[in-house]
Amino acid sequence: MIIEWVPYNNLQNIEYLTKGGISEIYTAVWIDGRYEEWDSKEQKLIRYGRQEVILKGLENVENANQRWFEEAESHLKISNKWPQIVQCFGLTQNPSNGNYMLVIDRADIDLRKYLQETQNQLSWKERIKIAHDITLALSIIHSESAIHRDLHSGNILYSKLNQRWYISDLGFCGPADKLTDSIYGNLPYIAPEVISGKNTTKKADIYSIGMLMWEISSGQPPFSYYENDYNLALNIINGMRPKVISGTPLKYENLMKQCWDADPSNRPDIDTLFDGIYSLLQYYQNISNEILQQETNNNLENNKIINNSMSKHINSTLFTSKIHKFKNLPEPKNAIEGMSRKFSKVFKKLNIKSNNDIQINYGKEIVEQQQIRQYNFNIDDEDETYDYKNFHSEEDNVFEIPDGKII
């Protein structure tokens, strides 16, 4: 695929669409369209013809360093090499203000809007297919030794023609001149170690996938009612995660929790995650349509209740990629680590003498959950949970359909 310069006068019907993060986004018609095929007789490339495209502004490119340009070029090549990534055809420049813009293939809808419009009609088979397409696309990005850095439901795009989900915005996340002591992204999807100031790695992308998996299950963005970025950042670092939606398949839940573990080394790599999602999709594809329809009907009312309760609280300003700058944040941890310290203080205050062997081997989880119910450590049971380590045995991971029901 050729990355080309698109003359601005070759674009028509340019209309403002929205503001995506710090970039203004427009729709347009590219008169000539992309290169489609090679005409061996005429010995020239044949163009597609009139084509709808997206124009995305690039901020402060003139101040970018050489590394930014090298990374941008590499990611452009990746996006045009693999069909699972939204294609970027090239660059153009608005002559009225001198701003550079990406010329990108246009999709039909993003994941956030799609879920909000269709959640009550989606079966688990359809939801897992979404997760499958996303993890497949990310596996390709990681195989090219690249990192996305800003995965969220606004840049997961759907093509009705191809019936496939794509990842977009690869390599152009944030301003070119972003300060080194700041981070850029959509806060609910940013990994805790990145929030606390560490470098972004592939495992940070995996954390974002965990948040997307939860959004696919619930139909709503995570932490949708938070008003304060700093409070949300601190809670994420301290182990707060969204509450698992009732009816979520156990295998899916386990993978999701592994993805959002506070310790990056505990998260699966993308190949392991993709294999898990793929096996789950295969399982659901072998289930009869009758059982799938029963499962969809059973979840319909539950999803309506979830969506109605969550939609009242959505803070649209939170779900925008932007620059964040947090100082003096603690090291990320899973909530069980922080809770254990709180419980030890409670035991001392109540003069509770516990047998360590009993606590470790017989009832640790039960004791801790009882203490959580008795003492309110700023946990809202209706909206978020301080996520515990996965206590399921290996036997729990086996797929079963007891009494014709899907779990």
Short description:
The protein is 39% helix and 17% strand. It has helices at 66-81, 111-118, 124-143, 192-195, 202-218, 229-237, 250-259, 270-285, 289-311, 335-349, 356-374; strands at 4-5, 11-20, 23-30, 35-39, 44-47, 51-57, 88-93, 100-105, 109-110, 156-159, 164-167, 183-185, 240-242, 322-324, 384-386. α3 packs antiparallel against α8 (270-285) and α7 packs antiparallel against α8.
List the helices and strands and how they pair.
Blueprint: E1 4-5, E2 11-20, E3 23-30, E4 35-39, E5 44-47, E6 51-57, H1 66-81, E7 88-93, E8 100-105, E9 109-110, H2 111-118, H3 124-143, E10 156-159, E11 164-167, E12 183-185, H4 192-195, H5 202-218, H6 229-237, E13 240-242, H7 250-259, H8 270-285, H9 289-311, E14 322-324, H10 335-349, H11 356-374, E15 384-386
Parallel strand pairs: 1-7
Antiparallel strand pairs: 2-3, 3-6, 4-5, 6-8, 7-8, 9-10, 10-11, 12-14, 13-15
Helix pairs in contact: 3-5, 3-8, 5-7, 7-8
In the sheet with the most strands, the strands line up as 1-7-8-6-3-2
- How many H/I helical runs? 11
Largest sheet: 6 strands, mixed
Q: Rounded to an integer, what's the Rg over CA atoms?
A: 23 Å
Q: Helix/strand-derived class? A: alpha+beta
Mean pLDDT: 77
CATH-defined superfamily of the largest domain = Transferase(Phosphotransferase) domain 1
Estimate the global geometry from the Cα principal axes: globular
Proportion in helices: 25-40%
What's the number of structural domains?
Answer: 3
The low-pLDDT segments are 174-179, 350-382, 388-407
CATH class of the largest domain: Mainly Alpha
The SSE order reads: EEEEEEHEEEHHEEEHHHEHHHEHHE
N/C terminus separation:
44 Å
**Could you say what the CATH topology of the largest domain is called?**
Transferase(Phosphotransferase), domain 1
Strand residue percentage:
15-25%
Count of distinct strands: 15
The CATH architecture classification of the largest domain is Orthogonal Bundle
